[in-house]
Amino acid sequence: MTAGALAETLPPVRHWPALDLPGTDFDPVLADLMAEGPVTRVQLPNGEGWAWLVTRYEDVRRVANDPRFSREAVMDRQVTRLAPHFIPAPGAVGFLDPPDHTRLRRAVAAAFTAKGVERVRDKARRLLDELVDDLLRGGPPADLTAAVLGPFPIAVICELMGVPAGDRHALHAWTELILSSSHGKEPSERAKREMAAYFSDLVGARRNSTGEDVTSLLGAAVGRGEITLEEAVGLAVLLQIGGEAVTANSGQMFYLLLTRPGLVERLRAEPGIRPRAIDELLRYIPHRNAVGLSRIALEDVEIRGVRVRAGDPVYVSYLAANRDPDVFPAPETIDFSRSPNPHAAFGFGPHYCPGGMLARLEEELLTDTLLDRVPGLRLAVPPDQVPFRKGALIRGPQALPVTW
Question: Strand 13-15 vs strand 39-43: parallel, antiparallel, or unpaired?
Answer without folding.
Answer: parallel
